[in-house]
Write a structure and sequence with these properties.
By secondary structure, the chain is an alpha+beta fold. It has 14 helices and 41 strands.
């Protein structure tokens, strides 16, 4: 007999084996013949976990079957739910119902809420030969998002509520999978690869394993030759650095498909607007399988995060007194030896309020059609306009630069936060936004590192301001920001204006200061992003209102230009957004750097976590709306005067979410600036407990296990806090949990097999199959 097993039944099997090992029996009687063999009957019940469902066309030929391979066959599922399933390409995977002809796609139909997350966990560990993807379609069967990465755990977030179709596709190979909708689950990078990603179609950023100057001198293979062999062209980069490669014409793309063994796509997301994106993703996935490739990534587009202004010096800048800037100016107005790099649309170099405030910069936009200045990379960061507004160009970088360092105390125009500071204008945003590769080159330039311009600034920047962002995690970008930070540069970025907790990059990268926005009442601005990656808040404004009654909108007032009439006029305008909040923080850091030249990224982070730089808003300590609070220029400058790196307790992650199903999570306790001993770890609620898992016996730093107990708690959402106390500081961690309605929680974990096993030999004696009933239970008899 060939036993059938189901991974969901593993615990039940172990229990059954234990029970059988203790069974006894008897019988018999007198007579010369052999007595009849004793008979036994063993029955039991298994229960499926709540909020579970099963793919209706799995590979098991004895399981209930209903095809779900198309929109019309889509399997309805509840929300929340965890689905167990299986997909395979024809001829791939173990023998079974779909092994020959394949089961390339499973379709599910579900109603989703805004900001819910869909997570796919792949069973196979061989991700080179087994690759599964998620596609999300609206009620009209149009593709709206996808995640086509090559990781074991992938996820995407739903933008708006509605009825959707979810497709789990076997792009290559075969695998079991778990699809989680609306529940806490294993974390994966959100949709790094997908048609919804904002990236340059046809561009790929690639790093070869042996692409170093020494290695290339030895093998004498140029980047152009390597790219040509793959049917690709070199658009940027050089030996020892990542390359920007491009998809060529139709003939070149056909060569690329042959060289990389890319099949003709059969996904239902077709049409010209998506075709080049789909081909770019296919090329990236194929390149990632090549043994000589470190990584292959999209060239993400980052966009200015400002909200367009309503219309048209210091009396209008209500946002400066809010952060106690006038008091800080009594101590310092900055220093000309401190440089802030503004990586943006460039700057109007001849704006009268920026004269004497600028150092040489660079234009890193390589695509002339995006640059609108007639050429690619050049040494002129002047902003020719981007034509993105109905009334002309945004001149976004000029507005940001004016907030940081507009010429001040001169009787005209507006004031800058740190008016003695100098601005390094670096142009990366054009008519269509900015490509992540171009932005990375600007970051490298600002930090004094090798880049595509072939130039290094005479003095690298001390601070980088990035009032731009977009979706999609990039390891290449994370590495670049880590390199810049290692040079001592403090990097500040806008958190984004989607009123969402979805991470926006670069603000969400490790080592980058993420800035949310507040309005004139110090409330989180209606457009501002929030979430666990927010570090600090600053004024971003709300141009819809005039709360202070000064006759002007409550936006952020700064330097601008106007080219709506065909000729450029230098002026000043209101704008709102996290783009406007970030330069307030960058400017205050420039003031701190003027006071303390030894200010490092680590020291800044420590002072921020200690509350030395902010006014605490929202929940006590750090929260997901304001981070550690609203930037306070006076506190920050005062703290910088005597600041040194002090030992500080740190706990990560910032928050824990147990969702509906999770009962146990982990967090880590550590320290920076020296050893710190944890003296107490307490919970605010009885249903939440914390225990040591693996800690240092002296400092009590290390891994801790956090558990929730839902017993006897009514249906609803719950919140609590964990408090970690040391002699240096106190850290609080926010915890959330849900309890679902049992009336809609009946589970279905698919067909199960119960095996009768000889405990001495391990041989299977007999088996039986069982399917779930209306109560989510499996009844079996052996």
């Amino acid at each position: 007999m060939r036993p059938r097993r189901n991974a969901f039944a593993a615990i039940a099997l172990l229990s059954l084996i234990t029970m059988l090992a203790g069974c006894g029996g008897g019988g018999g009687g007198s007579g010369s013949g052999s007595p009849p063999a004793p008979a036994y009957s063993i029955s039991g019940t298994l229960s499926a976990a709540a909020y579970t469902a099963m793919d209706s066309d799995v590979n098991d030929p004895e399981a209930p079957y209903a095809p779900n391979n198309s929109f019309d066959q889509a399997q309805p599922v509840g929300n929340p739910v965890t689905i167990g399933g299986y997909v395979n390409r024809p001829g791939r995977g173990p023998a079974g119902r779909s092994s020959r002809n394949g089961d390339a796609s499973d379709f599910y139909k579900v109603s989703l809420a805004a900001n819910q997350t869909i997570t796919l966990s792949i069973g196979e560990t061989d991700l080179v030969n087994n690759d599964m993807d998620i596609w999300l379609y609206d009620a009209g069967k149009r593709p709206v998002s996808s995640t086509q990465d090559t990781t074991r755990v992938e996820s995407l977030t739903v933008a708006t509520a509605g009825t959707y179709y979810i497709e789990v596709e076997a792009y290559a190979g075969a695998s079991n999978y778990t699809l989680t909708i609306g529940l806490a689950s294993a974390q994966g990078h959100p949709a790094t690869l997908g048609i919804g990603g904002d990236f340059v179609p046809g561009d790929i950023i690639v790093r070869f394993k042996d692409d170093t100057p020494g290695a290339r001198a030895a093998n004498a293979i140029s980047p152009a030759v390597r790219a040509q062999a793959l049917g690709l062209t070199v658009k940027g980069g050089d030996a020892g650095r990542p390359l920007l490669l491009g998809l060529g014409d139709a003939a070149s793309r056909a060569q690329m498909r042959r060289a990389l063994n890319i099949p003709v796509a059969d996904n239902s997301a077709t049409g010209d607007p998506l075709q080049l994106k789909r081909e770019t993703i296919q090329a990236i996935k194929a390149l990632r399988k090549q043994p000589d490739i470190v990584y292959a990534e999209p060239n993400y587009i980052r966009r200015a995060t400002a909200i367009p202004p309503n219309d048209e010096f210091y009396p209008r800048q209500w946002h400066y007194p809010m952060i106690n800037l006038p008091q800080a100016w009594d101590i310092t107005q900055g220093s000309s030896s401190v440089i802030v790099a503004v990586i943006d649309t460039g700057v109007l170099l001849n704006h009268p309020d920026l004269q004497g405030q600028l150092v040489p910069g660079y234009d890193f936009i390589r695509d002339p059609t995006n640059a609108l200045d007639g050429n690619g990379i050049d040494s002129n960061p002047d902003d020719p306009g981007d034509q993105v507004l109905a009334g002309g160009s945004s001149f976004h970088g000029t507005h940001v630069a004016g907030t940081i360092a507009a010429a001040s105390n001169n009787g005209t125009g507006v004031a800058g936060v740190a008016w003695q500071t100098r601005i390094m204008p670096l142009r990366v945003l054009g008519k269509r936004g900015g490509a992540s590769y171009d932005i990375m080159q600007a970051v490298l330039y600002a930090a004094g590192l090798d880049n595509d311009s072939g130039a290094i600034p005479a003095q690298p920047a001390d601070v980088i301001n990035l009032s731009l962002g977009g979706g999609g995690f990039s390891q290449t970008e994370q590495d670049v920001y880590a390199r810049a930070r290692a040079q001592g540069v403090i990097i500040v970025a806008a958190a984004g204006n989607e009123a969402s907790n979805t991470p926006s990059y670069p603000a969400a990268y490790n080592g980058v200061v993420s800035v949310s926005a507040v309005d004139i009442n110090k409330n989180l601005a209606y457009y501002s992003n929030f979430g666990s990656t927010i570090d600090i808040a600053a004024p971003g404004g709300d141009s819809r209102r005039d709360i202070n009654g000064d006759g002007y909108p409550d936006g952020i007032f700064s330097t601008r230009g106007n080219d709506a009439g065909g000729s450029l006029q230098y002026n000043y305008q209101f704008q709102q957004g996290t783009s406007m909040a970030a330069p307030h923080v960058a400017g205050v850091i420039a003031l701190m750097k003027a006071i303390n030249s030894q200010l490092t990224p680590d020291l800044f982070d420590q002072m921020l976590a200690q509350g030395a730089l902010t006014q605490d808003l929202g929940d006590s300590g750090r929260d997901n709306s304001y981070g550690y609070g609203l930037i306070d220029a006076y506190k920050a400058v005062s703290a910088a005067q005597g600041a040194t790196l002090k030992p500080t307790l740190i706990v990560s992650p910032f928050a824990l979410n147990f969702g509906l199903m999770t009962t146990e999570l982990e967090l880590a306790v550590g320290s920076i600036g020296g050893d710190v001993t944890l003296t107490a770890a307490t919970s605010s609620e009885s249903w939440l407990t914390i225990a040591e898992k693996s800690v240092d016996p002296g400092t009590k730093n290390g891994a801790y296990t956090v558990k929730v107990n839902r017993t006897n708690l009514p249906v609803g959402a719950y919140s609590a806090t964990l408090t970690f106390t040391s002699a240096a500081n106190i850290v609080t961690i926010a915890v959330t949990m849900q309890i679902g309605n049992p009336a809609v929680s009946t589970g279905n974990a698919g067909r199960h097999y119960v095996l009768l096993i000889n405990p001495e030999t391990g041989a299977v004696v007999t088996q039986t199959g069982a399917d779930t009933d209306s109560k989510g239970e499996y009844r079996y008899t052996l």
